[in-house]
Structures are given as structure tokens and as C-alpha cells.
Amino acid sequence: MRSISIRDSADRILDEVIVRVTSGHGGNGAMSFRREKYVEKGGPDGGEGGRGGDVIFVSTGRYSSLQFFAKKRTFRAQAGEPGAGRNKHGSDGLDITILVPLGTVLTDIVSEEVLADLVDEGETVTVAHGGSGGRGNASFATSVDRAPRYCEQGIPAEERRIRLRLKVLGDVGIVGFPNAGKSTLLSKLSAAHPKIADYPFTTLSPNLGVAFSPNSERITFADIPGLVEGAAEGRGLGNKFLAHIERSRVLLFLVDGSSSDPDPVQAYHLLCRELEQYSEQLAGKPRLIVVNKIDLISAQKRTGIRTRFVHQGIEPLMISALENRGIDAVIERGLALVQSAPVPPREQVTRIYKLKLSDETFEISRLPDGMLSASGRYLDRIIHTTDFEKPFQVTLLDQRMRKIGVEKALRKKGARDGQSVMIGGHVFTLGEETTTKR
Fold it and tell me: Which residue ranges make up the annotated binding site?
């Protein structure tokens, strides 16, 4: 498949964006007749138009951000080329392939339909299909009409507005209040190099790091921006990124052992409350409790913190990320929990199913302004493929609509001569002998 690729070009996070995509218009069919020396009355040889390109989203692990879409939010596939004489088929339009990070959920803005949840490498979804090419006059030749003087226009492109929402993929999601030491822990766990400094909200975007056990078993950690009280209701930065840990199989609660307001045990329960308010499913994930910065407190205080947790049925890990103490235990315990935890479900893809109607089925409805409207699969197609500048095509359209009973159905609903009606998305004037486009 030929394609044009759109690649990410930034390193900062953008986790939700709305884009507009348009597939390619189908190429028009050609009306042509064979003209060669010594060939008398050459027959029709108009070729078909090419098919328009599709809009395709593809997931890739090479990118972790939707930042590319901050500058470009409109994408259009290539239109099909028109047909030509000598039965030449127009070239098909190029598809446009848009690369997105793993964990991207695509939702149609209008219908609220979840189109895809792209989790695995190389998954694809076509969100807008290119229009098919119109037929040339050679396709309409019959024993009765050997020289048809009409052809079809290509089917119009599809246009959609799609919401892209990124949910970071990590085996273990690290949650904690600002300054708990999440970025430092991640840097020690893996080869990641997140920005680290001694002030709140250092992490303004999720960071991913990969760690390996002594047996070379792989585990991915996701450092989520610090929560604040009320994050579940949208306060602070927390609510914006809570969705990212929905993908995690295990949650690592990181608390600051040197903090007194709140103290480590209080901080843990505050974090639990925020997660419960945001999502019961999220709060029910397997968890690992880690007390950080033990290098800043006395042995007596470390024992007191541990004892309080144990009395609540919790066995915490006591570490110092800065001094690289207890890091192996975090990897070992985290890996064991991940291996026994269920795989998080994907976003449920919804489909809006419609009854497949026969070609000649159409519906009559009344628009808000009172105008009658006729629409159907076949009816819309013959309207879209008609060139109203060519009398032969208009006559053919009129014959087709009369054959399936469009005018009769409109009159039955109360339409009168000279009245405007909507047919296949175009306004027509109803007449006694013919239905003409206004």
C-alpha cells in the first residue's frame, strides 16, 4: 500500500487533541469516444476515475507524545485522478498514514463512537475511506445504447473530527504527591532521565522507564505527575494525568518518609482516597507501597513508620532512591505483582450498527425548517455522481429517481409542484414532469 507518513517531532507530552481528517475524493469518470483513422464510428472508451485515498492511524512505540498535533490538526488524503479516453483508469489517491503512540484511543466527536484503542505495535484503523471513482461512459454501453453520452462523478470524500486521547502504557504506575521522589526513583530503576529538581510539580508529563530483573525480565514503570488533594475533582495537575495509570497493571504508591504534613501513612491514605474518587477500578489494582527518603530520617523513625503500616496489614518497602538503596527490591516486588496481575482491558470499542438497506430503499423526513428530505444509500450515490452541467446525466438521474419512486413518495408526504425539496443533500424544485435541481 502506498502511503504518506506523518511522524511525531517533539518530546513534550500532549495527551488529548481533536483533529480533522478528510479522505480523498473519487476521480470522475470520463466521457470519450474512440477516434482513429480508418475506424468508423468508434465506440465509447471513457475510463473510470481512481479511488480516493484513506486516512489511516497506526500505533508505534517510537513515540510517546501527541505533541505533533499541537501544530498540525488537519489531514487530507489524496484524491483519485479522473479517468481518460482509451479506457484509461485514473490513478488511485495516496492514503495518508498518521503515526500515534501506543495507548492512543480514537473517538468520533459527532457520534461519540470509540473507533479504536491502539495498544500493540503496528495496529491500524481506517477512520475515513476514500470515495470510489466514477464510471466512464464505456461502462454504460449496451446493445440498446451503444454510444452513451454520460459518465459518473467520483464519490465525495469522508470528513470526520476525531479525538485522540493518550493513555500511557506502563506495567507499574508510580503515584505520589509532589516532591515524593518519583523522578529520582524512575532514574534509578531504569535508563530514563527525567527532569529532577527540588520543587513541586517537577514532572509535568508522564515519563516511562524500563527496568530489568537479575534474570533479565523486563518491567516498565510510568512516572505520573504528582497528585494534590482534590485531584479527582480536577484540582491541580493530578486529574489531567490520572487516566494514564488506568493502563498500569500495578500501582506503586511512593510516599516521602521525611515528610510530617502529611506524614507517610497519612499521605498513603490520601492517595488512596483520590484514586477511589476517580475510579473504583483504578483503586482496586494490585499495589506496592514504598517509603522513600529514609536517608533523611533516623532509624527510630523508620521503625515507627514501618510499624504503623504493618499494623494496617501493609508491608512497605523502605528505600532511598537518592542513595540507590532498596531499588532491587522495588524491581523484584513490582515484577512479581505484575506477573500475577490481570492485563487491563482495552477501551471498549463501540460500533454504531445500521440496518443494511437495499439499493432502492430511501427515507422521507422533514427538516427543522419544514422542507421534505429524501435520502438513501443508492439515492445519495446517484445524486453525488451526477454532473448537473451535462443534460444527458440530468435526464438519466431523473429517470432513475422516477423508477424508484422518489417523486411519488414526496408527493404522498404533501410536496407540491414548485416546492423545494432536499434529495441526497441537494435542493431540488419539484415539477409536474421532472424534478430539477435548483
Answer: 176-183, 201-205, 223-226, 292-295, 320-322
421 sits in which H/E element: strand 420-423
pTM for the model stands at: 0.67
Question: Do both 199 and 157 map to the same domain?
Answer: no
Pair type for strands 363-366 and 372-375: antiparallel
Q: Find the CATH number of the domain harbouring 334.
A: 3.40.50.300
Together in a domain, 309 and 201:
yes
Q: Among the three residues 340, 374, 400, which one is the final residue of a domain in this structure?
A: 340
Binding region for Mg(2+): 183, 203
In a domain, 193, yes or no: yes
* Residue at 297: amino acid letter: I
Q: Which domain holds residue 221?
A: 172-340
Express each pLDDT in 193-217 by its tens digit. 444 433 333 344 567 777 888 888 8
| Through-space distance between the first and last CA atoms of the chain, rounded to whole angstroms | 41
Asked if residue 349 belongs to a domain, the reply is no
CA 124 vs CA 15, 67, 77, 115, 158: distances in Å: 19, 20, 16, 11, 18
Q: Which residues are annotated as part of the binding site for GTP? A: 176-183, 201-205, 223-226, 292-295, 320-322
At a CB cut-off of 8 Å and minimum separation 6, what does 288 contact? 172, 250, 251, 252, 253, 317, 330, 333, 334, 337
Which three cell numbers, joined as nine digits, stand for 240?
Answer: 489531567
**Average pLDDT over every residue of 214-232:** 69
